[in-house]
Amino acid sequence: MKNMLPKVQCPKCHTEAELDQVLTAQSNQNVIYRCQNCSYECRDIHTSKG
């Protein structure tokens, strides 16, 4: 059985994708969301780590 990850919905086009496909964590604790469908991008997402 495949390990299912939570899905994230794009705020622009509403396409859903698994977390590991759309979120990128950078070494400076910034997180970037990038939609593979419409190329919408959101940077510097606030997380509990900073």
Throw out a few tags for this protein.
single chain, two-stranded antiparallel ribbon
Could you describe the 3D structure shown?
By secondary structure, the protein is mainly beta. It contains 1 helix and 5 strands, in the order ββαβββ. The strands form 2 sheets. Strands 3-4-5 form a 3-stranded antiparallel sheet. A two-stranded antiparallel ribbon has the order 1-2.
Q: Quaternary status of these chains? A: single chain
The portion of residues forming beta strands comes to 25-35%
Q: C-alpha Rg, in Å?
A: 12 Å
Low-confidence stretches: none
Please tell me what the overall shape is: globular
- The computed structural class is mainly beta
Average of the residue pLDDT scores: 88
Largest sheet: 3 strands, antiparallel
Q: How many individual helices? A: 1
The ordered string of helix (H) and strand (E) elements is EEHEEE
The largest beta-sheet arranges its strands as 3-4-5
Helix content: under 10%
Could you give the distance between the termini?
34 Å
The tally of beta strands, per DSSP, is 5
